[in-house]
Amino acid sequence: MFVGGQGEELGELLGVGQFGQHPGGLADALVAGQAMLGQALGLMMLSSAALAQEAPGEWQQSVFVYGMGAAIDGNASVGPLTVPVELSISDLFNNLDMGAMAAYRVENGTWSFTGDVTYMDLGFSRTTDQGRAGASLGTEQLVIMGTVGRRLSPNVEVLFSLARFDVSSDLEVRVLNQTRAISSGADWIDPLVGVAYSRPVGEKWSLSLRGDVGGFGIGSDLTMHGWAKLVRQNSDAFSWYVGYRFIGFDYETGTGLDYQRYDLQQHGPGIGVAFKF
Q1: Most CB contacts within 10 A, which of 10, 48, 239, 246?
Q2: pLDDT, tens digit, for every residue of 6-61?
């Protein structure tokens, strides 16, 4: 309970007179509270109206299913062991145990939200010409990317993304009659910024380009992503596309036997279909 000057000071702050000094104090407080609530609701309505004017389009959803014939280059290190990774597109299909790629996008002409998932499970081995030394690497890679896009013009969209990388490796090195094997895994999240550009190149064809860069030492040292696609719009609800995609990252963590580094680039042609509803 407030007494004396405390009640007056609190009343002045609330703008309702001295609290508890006369029967009308509570009623005045309720009136003032209703006025403040009305102002807040008014501001919310104005904000909603502004957002509605900024994004007048209806929300549309799209589902993408696609595949890539990706070559993989770089190095994978686990503990003191490092294996150069050089897989051509034909090598990838020979060593791919499982792969899945899909995306979901919702947009209203101004804003867009996209989720993309890429998963690959592959293994390969390398042996010297003399056959006295060799290495084998089995790796699973899961990349989940969420993107918020803001359209600046009919052709240009600025992108802000978060990408989660999950990589696990089984590495085995053989030298003469000695074999050493290490299993390990790492996961990290990278922020990325990018730009997308699209334009029609015919009555039913369009060109779509996207480039992102990120990492910035927050997750990986550097992450890069790019997509170039030629899209054929068969109908309002269905399209298909061919293109070329690049994903590269340089990530390292740990020391000694716990040291891991993945400096890998995946790139190659892709083909997919899209359903809009």
Answers
A1: 239
A2: 444 334 433 333 333 334 443 443 344 444 434 433 443 443 344 444 445 799 99
Same domain, 83 and 216: yes
pLDDT for the residue numbered 258: 84
Asked if residue 47 and residue 64 are part of one domain, the reply reads no
> What are the φ and ψ backbone dihedral angles of 251, each rounded to 5 degrees?
-130, 135
Domain that holds residue 238: 58-276
Q: How many domains does the chain have?
A: 2
